[in-house]
Specification:
globular, 2 helices, Jelly Rolls, eight-stranded antiparallel beta sheet, mainly beta
Length: 302
């Protein structure tokens, strides 16, 4: 996730409709005007995270990343139909879980002892990839500053083709890193990868609010015509070009601040690995603190 120019907007009146997408579970808030069919979901009702649906992101730009918790550490199944992604303190360092249904090719470390010029290791088989549809999360955000949570879509080869339609668009459905500084939530798109071709002006910010029951609902309607973003039953933004025309994977992620030191890559672009230090705000965090998710659902328009 990169940083970008943002436009503050005011949500428009409620446009979503409540529907019981999964029997016995909290309803979905689906945009009107279309018929929706549930194609993938996780209600987090088990005693362990479903590893057929979620893998851990443990590496960043080809190197092990200390801010990402490994092997599902910090992932708590509550027994009440939710999952919590915890901020973990280890001495003077911090980490937290980053869950995804696929992986970014650039993250995969080179295989030890393998020669040749190819800079990546063996690709991980994605667990779920999809194109177009409505992507929704019901969640409760972390209470403390210094780390952030996000719900977003990514493509394995973003930026690898001159046309974003052919290689994907990073779609940030919700990022809360401004919640504790100025009460804002951010959503929107970035494309062109993460180098000189990177483009990050397609974002919006809006006031952080919860629903009457204390939860938040965020979603995006991704169609061939563009992206429409929703928060708690209100339309909060649109990004109509470029539009990804490739399958992408889903992420529910957290990350402690401060570890991305040089150009957001820890110095990797200079041929060295040198991560930053944790954000000072993390040392004031009152633990336990967590990003709690009730469900993630994906719908197709039919």
């Amino acid at each position: 996730m990169a940083r970008f120019n943002e436009i503050d907007i005011k949500p428009v009146p409620a446009t979503e409709i409540s529907t019981s997408a999964v029997a016995g579970e909290a309803p979905s808030l689906l945009p009107p005007g279309k018929k929706w069919s549930l194609v993938w979901h996780d209600e987090f009702n088990g005693t362990e995270i479903d590893k057929t649906k979620w893998m851990c992101r443990e590496s960043f730009w080809g190197a092990d990343f200390p801010a990402f918790a490994h092997d599902y550490e910090g992932v708590e199944m509550t027994g009440n139909g939710t999952v919590r992604l915890h901020l973990l303190r280890k001495g003077d360092d911090f980490c937290s879980p980053h869950l995804q249904t696929g992986s970014l090719t650039y993250d995969i470390p080179r295989e030890p002892g393998r020669g040749g010029f190819w800079p990546f290791g063996a690709k991980k088989q994605p667990l779920f990839m999809h194109k177009f549809g409505y992507y929704e999360v019901r969640c409760r955000l972390p209470k403390c500053a210094g780390w952030h949570a996000a719900f977003w879509l990514q493509a394995p080869g973003i930026g690898s083709h001159p046309d974003p339609a052919a290689c994907g668009v990073e779609c940030d459905i919700m990022e809360n890193y401004r919640q504790h500084t100025d009460g804002k939530i951010v959503c929107g798109n970035g494309w062109g990868g993460y180098g000189s071709d990177s483009r990050w002006f397609g974002h919006f910010s809006f006031d952080a609010e919860t629903m009457a029951d204390g939860w938040c609902d965020y979603g995006v309607d991704w169609s061939p015509d563009g992206y429409t973003f929703y928060a708690n039953g209100k339309k909060v933004g649109e990004q109509n070009e470029p539009v990804s025309n490739v399958e992408q994977f889903v992420l529910i992620s957290t990350e402690p601040g401060g570890y991305r030191k040089v150009g957001n890559d820890g110095g990797l672009s200079d041929g060295r690995i040198e991560w930053g230090k944790p954000s000072p705000a993390l040392f004031d965090a009152v633990l336990p603190d967590f990003f709690e998710v009730d469900f993630v659902r994906v719908f197709d328009a039919v």
